[in-house]
Amino acid sequence: MQLELDYELTQLSQLTFCVLDVETNGSGPEEPSITEIAAVKVRYGHLEDRFHTLMRPKNAIPPRIVALTGIQNHMVEEAPLENEVIPQFAEFVRGTVPVGHNVKFDLRYINAACVRIGMEPLTATPLDTLTLSRRLLLGEVHDFRLGTLSQYISARYRPSHRAMDDVLATVELLHALIERAGQLGATHLEDLRTITTLNSGQLAKKTTLSKTLPHKSGVYLFLDQESKPLYVGKATDLKTRVRSYFSSEQRRKIPVLLHQLSRIDYSVTPTLIEAEALERRLIQGLAPRFNHQHKNQELWWIDTRHRSLLPSSAAKDHLLARPNHLLGPFLSKFSAHSALRAIESLKDSAGEVLLVDRDPEVYQRIYHIFHNKMVSMSNEKEFEKAAVTRDDAKRLLMKLSVTLLAREIRDREALQLLESQSHQRVTIQEGLLDIQGDSCWYQWANRSTDTELFESALVANRVLRGGLNPLTHLSDLSLASEIHRLGELFVARLS
DNA sequence: GCAGCAGGCACATGGCAACA
DNA sequence: TGTTGCCATGTGCCTGCTGC
Q: What nucleotide is nearest A131 when CA is compared to C1'?
């Protein structure tokens, strides 16, 4: 593994490539079917060593394949078997970067033979000239067969479906492709592998901008030549996400964006939710011209004491002074209004509106409203209605718990706290955290020793990740079973 | 307030092209 | 002809924006 990482960071001129090719009798790799195998080691553009032998397959070579390769049955009758050839071949390839045209095809046969004779398959990650050609010569040739490509680059060796001829043709193709990639700034093996994911040579130049990005969650920032922000986005995997802009993005604005792109900055965050928060702040602060979402977006809060709605700007002072009396944030005024209506529907026996608070006593009172209803229904033998009421109670209590959990992490103070503490991760329920890969619930979990409550936090987290507003979207059936189970937990705790 | 559309992101899938 | 893997495209789920 370490060896491979070193390869990726080694300059192309210093690598030893092993260009290989196999011919078969047309049978699958599941039985001995290789008829010829050839390889050459190439370093600094020079052939250093070569390996070539015929091999005896299990079955006869059919006429169709004889016509294709020119290898006839009498030529392989005395040839060595795979248990003699494959160990020598594996030793020849050791310490090099395997290369071939559609190389995975060849390696399938070689590795199947390795397994049959009790050897480990070849593990080095190969380089495929077919894939590279598709990227670097797109639009220049009508197909990517080895013969077509050899002709296109005016190679001295022409492929003939004999292993060594094809290997030598592939060597020339490899050198031509490396030269072409070098014009785009590729200097290392890692760069060649990156190019295999691109869709045009022009874009290839700019993918080198993503070189330094890590495979971690965070926020990326596209900048133009004058370092003006073009676009801010978040990603669960920064490197993969940014590279996807060069290979698979279909949005109309993307070509224009990439044309103006000159630099990529990024910031790693421990969790996706923190990335979302940072993304939002950057968009609001920098107003990148290609960001439409979140631009001028106002968040809304509910003032539970006055039963009114507050925009973020007005809620700021309240958040610092009386955070327990604010519920939110909500992504739109409409969502906040819906939530407020839901809250106002909760009235106790005296007709007083029950305001959502962190005080567990409120839950107790809500539960008793439903409990009393259920008892009276049961007394009147309306068991089905009672069951519906019971389920309503569970759902409602879960709604409220999720809302409170949402508030725990989504207000700005909590997010700032998470950012400041992100380097001091608390390990609670280690397995769960690893699976979820999210530290946003650490501070909440840290105050609870209850495993199931901690699980409910993870469910709430999923609700938030899906962008569901807890008070307005919990009719979502996909969450029903989880909510049902967790609602039972809350009801049990309250009773 | 609502409907329709577009944006954003992650993931799934079917067709194509290469090999022998 | 059969197999395989890549990649363009589609899908799902949510969001915000705009016009009525």
A: C6
What does the alpha-carbon distance between residue A218 and residue A269 come to, in Å, rounded to a whole number? Answer: 5
Looking up residue A166, the CATH number of its domain turns out to be 3.30.420.10
Q: Are A222 and A77 in the same domain?
A: no
Alpha carbons within 13 A on the beta-carbon side of A60:
5
Shared-domain flag, residues A41 and A108: yes
Q: Where are the beta strands (DSSP E) in A224-378?
A: 229-235, 263-268, 300-303, 308-311, 326-330
Strands A229-235 and A218-223: antiparallel
Q: Which regions of A92-175 does DSSP assign to beta strands (E)?
A: 97-100, 127-128
| Residue A192, in any domain of the structure | no
- Domain finish residue from A152, A187, A222: A187
* CA A406 – CA A410 distance, rounded (Å): 6
State the nucleotide closest to A254 in CA–C1' terms.
B7
pTM above 0.85, yes or no: no
- Our count of domains for chain A comes to 3
Average pLDDT, chain A: 61
Spell out the long-range contacts of A113-117 with Cβ–Cβ below 8 A and sequence spacing 24 or more: A113/A29, A113/A32, A113/A34, A113/A82, A113/A86, A114/A86, A114/A90, A116/A32, A116/A82, A117/A82, A117/A83, A117/A86, A117/A87
Chain A 240-279 residues in 7 Å CB range of strand C: 247-248, 250
- Residue A302, number of CB atoms within 10 A of its CB: 26
Nucleotides of strand C lying closer than 7 angstroms to a protein CB = 3-9, 13-17
Tens-digit pLDDT profile for residues A212-245? 666 666 677 777 767 777 677 766 666 666 665 6
Same domain, yes or no, for A215 and A106?
Answer: no
Residue A128, class by beta-carbon neighbours within 10 Å (0-12 exposed, 13-18 middle, 19+ buried)?
A: buried
Beta partners for A229?
A223
Q: What positions of strand B are covered by protein, i.e. any atom < 7 Å from a CB? A: 1, 7-11, 17-20
| CB neighbour list of residue A17: distance below 8 Å, 6 or more residues apart | A41, A42, A43, A96, A97, A98, A99, A127, A174
Can you give the distance from the CA of residue A243 to the C1' of nucleotide B5 in angstroms? Answer: 28
Distance CA A149, CA A66 (A): 24
pLDDT in tens, A44-87: 778 889 988 888 888 788 776 777 777 888 888 888 888 888 88
Q: Check the CA dihedral A411-A417-A420-A422 and report its sign.
A: negative
Question: Could you give the 3-state DSSP secondary structure of residue A354?
Answer: coil
- Expressed as residue numbers, the domain containing A218 is 197-286
Q: Of A187, A219, A240, which residue sits at a domain end?
A: A187
